[in-house]
Amino acid sequence: MQAAHEFYQRIADSVLAGGASAHDEELLGEHLAHCAACSQHFEAGKRAVDALRGFSFPPDEEGQAKVRNLLRRHARQIAAQRLQRRRMAWIWAIALVLTVAGSFADWQLAGLLARFFHLRPAELRNGLLSGWILPSIGIALFMPFVLLAPSNRRGRSI
Ligand SMILES: [Zn+2]
User: Are 124 and 79 in a shared domain?
Assistant: First the structure.
């Protein structure tokens, strides 16, 4: 007897999914007329399908405008993120160049620059190291972590 109910409930599911023949629908109708359990199964399924339909197709103009606005805002955020990433990639490249240039200046030109600025080479070296090389190394090392982070938090707020 239980097997018969499962048979009819499977038919009910395919009727709800829109894949049942007219004969199946007729069989189901006859059974539902005198079976409370299967009627309940069918009604619950119908409510779920109706709710899903209402969710995927906002019925009114205002609802559709809201969905369009959300999508548009999401697209803008993604574009802004992409631009920010490109900007940070540039900063990283510049920091790398500055690191190389600063190191080169330190190693090759310290004596020359010291004479030019009337400083002792050690003072100039310290100045270059703390004011140029270390900051740019810092940025160059830090930037990949920012660039490789999966996504920036603001983008997930929807
Ligand atoms: Zn039944």
Answer: yes
